[in-house]
Amino acid sequence: MSLLTRTRKLNRILQKSGAEPVVFEDICNILSEDLDGDVFVVSRKGKILGEQYKDNFKLKDKYKSMENDINFSEKYNDELLGVYQTLINLDQDDDRSLNIKDTTEGTKEYTSIIPIIGNRERLGTIIVISENRELDDDDIVLLEYSSAIIGLEIMRAKQIERDVEKRENDIVNLAIQTLSYSEEKAVEHIFRELGGIEGLLVASRVADKAGITRSVIVNALRKLESAGVIESTSLGMKGTRIKVLNEKLLEKLDL
Description:
By secondary structure, the protein is α+β, with helices and mostly antiparallel strands. It has eight helices and eight strands, in the order H-H-E-E-H-E-E-E-H-H-E-H-H-E-E-H. The protein has a five-stranded antiparallel beta sheet, with helices on one face. Strands 6-8-7 form a three-stranded antiparallel beta sheet.
């Protein structure tokens, strides 16, 4: 299969995803099938973002704990972060090799490590384990192209996260600006009383403790709910169930 055909498989993932984030498992599936090996995509902190094994296998006894893990060990991740350029076909004696499989005698494993870098920042790592086959130059091109795609996706995800956080902060700031001084103080008392993001509020009890009128509490809650920051449900004589929808509110109140 030509290199052009192989890269087009990856391009189709990008075209299919559109505005949605690329699923790293999909990239791992393509690479595993193409390279006939096991493939991992790992974040900078060692979290496994995607993985695909070419076949079923048994883990070596000392790696049994990995069966349910979603992270590589801190020690091994430090080894990965120490790799600044593509390393191909490391043999099993190399400390950076990922020899986790209980292979049959005579099987030779090679580990390849491809750093994922974006905007001059280390974002993660691609790891490929191949059996009885060394990766060639075309394989390297395919892996480094995959690394570039993943790097762009990680940066896009980070930007989306920053945008969401900014939007949530802006909404909370606007909501608080609509409160009068007494209503803002009432909100502080309300959420100290709740002690979390959800709970039952008895307005009269808070009013007595804070020395404010019940109407101030009701008005404050109504404004926060109108802003989409909280959700409230009246339970009659029992009180009102409050649920925080935007946790930036608690941060803003230092709670």
